[in-house]
Amino acid sequence: MTLSLRSFMRHEAVLGILLVLVLFVLAQQSDKFFTTANILNQGRLMTEIGLIALPMTFVIITGGIDLSVGSILGLCAILLGVFWQNLGLPLPAAMALAVCVGALAGLVNGLIITRFKVPPLIATLATLALYRGLAEGISQARSVRGYPEWFFVLGQGEVLGVPTQLWILIVFAIGAAAILGLTTFGRATYAVGANETAARFSGINVDRTKLLIYTASGLVSGIAAVIFVSRVSTTRSDMGTGVELDVITAVVLGGTSIFGGRGTIIGTVIGLILVQALKNGLALSGVKGDGTIVVIGVVLIFAILASNLFSRNGDG
Amino acid sequence: MKTKTILMAAGLVLASSAAYAASWTGGDDLPTNPLACDATPGEVVAKPYDGGVPTNAPDRNGKKITVVDVPKLIGVGYFSATTKGQAEAAKELGNVDVKTDGPTKANIDEQITFIDNYVTSGVDGILFAANDPVAIAPVLKKALAAGINVVGYDANSTPDARQWFVNQAEFNGVAKSLVDNLAKEIGEDSAFAIVTSTFTTPNQARWIAEMAAYAAKCHPKLEFLETVEAQEDNVLSFNQATTLINKHGDKLKGIVGMTSVATPAAAEAVTQSGLCGKVAVVGLATPNAMKPYVEKDCVKSVVLWNPVDLGYAAIYVLRAAADGTLKPGDTSVKAGKLGELKVVNGSEILLGSPFVFDKSNIGQFDF
Question: Is A311 part of the contact surface with chain B (CB cutoff 8 Å)?
């Protein structure tokens, strides 16, 4: 454990240095980059991805993947609108219900994976289509608009000068880090990913662990949906298309092994900030959108290569 | 594809409690204003200015301004044409520095992020073609609050989130042109289907709603089958059109393409199915994409405005707004070679009537 812990630290150290380097270079390129207003604003833009990346870290540590998060986001967003506008529920109730649907969608993922032994990649690829199809069907492709002013506090307002949703992200990140690092559940998560059979024989309830993790993934996607709707003030069925890729990029960049058994929340958070800083900083220094995607791809490969190089030395 | 249809159907059943009353799918709920069945022009109703105003904008009169153009997506012929027009106008004016940057897919989340970053980087003007009229509003308002001149073209936002909108053609005018040409080609009591981008894309939804209203008024026997979504994606548009042909068989006499991607893809699908002359394709498209089909007599009429002129006008309008020569309450604006353009609908600038390309004139256009 200590050895693997050291290799975690190593990847995060590499990533941390890379982040500082990137921030430094980008700050040189544009004087608008390292301003409080811009940094807080970026926090606003990355909250939805950041929130979903937290449970995704757990999912990937167990050796799984959840491709349906973007579709769950879309489905919950649409249902929030439908519950509120078409069924006439009070908005807080609609918000709560939408989040519950998210959890339910995650639970379904978990059940398919644990009960029917469907590989997570295939199970969530199927529900990616399923949930998006439901979102499109339920919405009849019409958007819901005209939410009351107080609702926008969540996505457009601020508390103590910091965007509201950034507080939520911080609380969730600390919570997730504590669960993963300090609790038996966290250790069970690593055990499941490192060696599922061994985990079963050690008396860990593997299915329950996975079920909880996939449910949490859906639940958090639901919360992200509510924040997203509040940020853009309208509901569309195509919301969150492709979010899963941004989320997985942040998690993998953060050092979580796609084969399971390794990863930390702090790594995910650094990965998230790195991607967001690159997107924003490059745009501010005049690089066009297509160029930015290329740079992010290169950084991702570089970070993984660098970390592999160091950890091989460490293990060797 | 099939599974998706089944899933959508399942969703529709679930949503049946929230049924909507629209007669044609893919339209919006806004009130419609169909034109007269003959060629009587629509009335221009005077309306007070309903656009926004930038807060504490610096005096930009005559000064060089940096402008960023964020279209729905980049890399498609249509928005390359608007970019070309913008560059042309910027060159004429000499004091506008314009660049186009935007998402590679028509995605509102990404479009918001692009605009947000440009607001932070401190440009003087923003041109946009919205992927969603409401979702784009907060970030545009933020731009106005930062003193940036904001002008839309092609696809509008809510009026108070921008100063002006360059309207390429009024919705009822395009709708009339499409439905009239369709009825002329397939006959009054035939059936047709529509290929659109997505049901929530503002322009397409508006046109479909206006087409439904105009058809009900002037061509009541036309039979509407369905509208399918194709996301302004080439392959998807072709597949959707092919599916329509296979699904409806002989009943289908016409396909209306609502985007510059869907129309040529539908024409290709009809050609490959060997149904030229049996299934008519009418729609919005750029002439270059349609030339092969028009020359082979597979497509008779293509409806559009000139996107190069649209981009050109957008730059002139933005420049006039930045200079303060175009103020709320004005009734027209000078736009270089296009002459005086009319202000309609409070804060919209009308480019002109839609243009119908056919075999006799399509060779004269290159965009």
Answer: no
Is B292 found in the same domain as B221? yes
Q: Is the pLDDT of residue A259 over 80?
A: yes
Q: Quick check: A238 and B10 CB within 8 A?
A: no
State the SS3 of chain B. CHHHHHHHHHHHHHHHHHCCCCCCCCCCCCCCCCCCCCCCCCCCCCCCCCCCCCCCCCCCCCCCEEEEEECCCCCCHHHHHHHHHHHHHHHHHCCEEEEECCCCCCCHHHHHHHHHHHHHHCCCEEEECCCCCCCCHHHHHHHHHCCCEEEEECCCCCHHHCCEEEECCCHHHHHHHHHHHHHHHHCCCCEEEEEECCCCCHHHHHHHHHHHHHHHHHCCCCEEEEEEECCCCHHHHHHHHHHHHHHHHHHEEEEEECCCCHHHHHHHHHHHCCCCCCCEEEEECCHHHHHHHHHCCCCCEEEECCHHHHHHHHHHHHHHHHHCCCCCCCCEEECHHHCEEEEECCCEEECCCCEEECCCCHHHCCC
Using a CB–CB cutoff of 8 Å, tell me whether B14 touches chain A.
yes
Q: pTM for this structure?
A: 0.74
Asked if A139 lies within 8 A of B15 by C-beta distance, the reply is yes
Give how far A222 is from chain B: nearest CA, Å.
17
Q: Is residue B306 over pLDDT 90?
A: no
**pLDDT by residue (tens digit) across B47-63?**
788 888 888 888 888 88
Confidence (pLDDT) at B361: 84
Residue B336 is part of which domain span? 65-169+306-352
pLDDT tens across B207-238, in order? Answer: 999 999 999 989 999 999 999 998 888 899 99
Q: What is the CATH number of the domain that holds B289?
A: 3.40.50.2300
**Residue from B23, B121, B140 to probe the interface with A (highest A Cβ count within 10 Å):** B121
In a domain, B3, yes or no: no
Q: Provide mean pLDDT across the span A284-303.
A: 82
Q: Please tell me the least confidently modeled range out of A128-132, A268-272, B14-18, B124-128.
A: B14-18
pLDDT of residue A7: 54
What pLDDT sits at residue A8?
A: 54
* Chain A residues with beta carbon closer than 8 angstroms to that of B228: none
Domain assignment of residue B5, yes or no: no
Contacts of B103 in chain A (CB under 8 A): 289
Domains and CATH numbers, chain A: 2-17+35-309 (1.10.3470)
pLDDT confidence band for A136 (50 / 70 / 90) = confident
Report the domain count for chain B: 2
Whether residues B317 and B229 share a domain: the answer is no
Contacts of B4 in chain A (CB under 8 A): 129, 133
Q: Are residues B176 and B295 in the same domain?
A: yes
What percent of chain A shows pLDDT beyond 70?
94
Regarding whether B317 and B285 lie in a shared domain, the answer is no
How far is the alpha carbon of B191 from chain A, nearest alpha carbon, in Å?
Answer: 23
Interface contact flag, A30 B137, Cβ < 8 Å: no
Tell me if B94 is assigned to some domain: yes
Using the beta-carbon criterion (under 8 Å), do B18 and A236 form an inter-chain contact? no
Grade residue A311 by pLDDT with cuts at 50, 70 and 90: low
Q: Is A77 on the interface with B (CB under 8 A)?
A: no
B11 contact residues in A (CB cutoff 8 A): 133-138
Same domain assignment for residues B131 and B72: yes
| B69 domain residue, yes or no | yes
Q: Which member of B20, B104, B108 has the closest CB to residue A236? A: B108
